[in-house]
Amino acid sequence: MNGALDTKALLRLMAWLSPAFPIGGFAWSGGLERAVADGLVANARDLEDWLSTVLRRGALWNDAVLFSEAWRQAEDRKTIGEVAALGLALAGSSERFSETLSLGKAFVTAASAWPHPVFERLPADVPFPVAVGAIAASHEVPCVPALAAFLHAAVSQAVSAGIRLSVAGQAEGVAIVAALEAVIDDLSQRAASTGLGDLGGATVQAEIASLRHETQHSRLFRS
Hints:
mainly alpha, Urease accessory protein UreF, 0% strand
């Protein structure tokens, strides 16, 4: 599970989790846009605190658990289907549901450039972390580095959203990514050995922000 990355695995991770990979991640903010509108995130320090909390106790923690379970169950069609259904059911709002489903489907479509039987085992409706976890496992990418790359990409995308929402500048954004490196490392190590019983969260404000975004009229993002 903690195996070293070979060059092929590294190259695939770099491709799959690059901002240029065509999954449309730039269109989503996971409720951050509403948090900014409501004054919950007003500056770079707030953005770092917000992301750290979502990583440790919110949607990104659950995504990490789902990713790890999908990685372990990638060869079991029935179980991976159940994990996918659970991941969609855990979405706290219609926009969060649309976000994880849209990214998951787009990831499967784009990653099919690397042919593998795993694509036949994945259900048509698959949330983003389940898609990435199962495909990474099937291509023999070790769980911990794959999960770390997944979380790093999620944080980087959120920081990019924060910059577009004018709560942080480019230099501050880079500093946030650097500051959260240790959190991502620790979370990846812990989540890789979790099970579905470890799902859960305590980020009520983030969930409310995601719900409130559904009625926001002026917006840059779809969630």
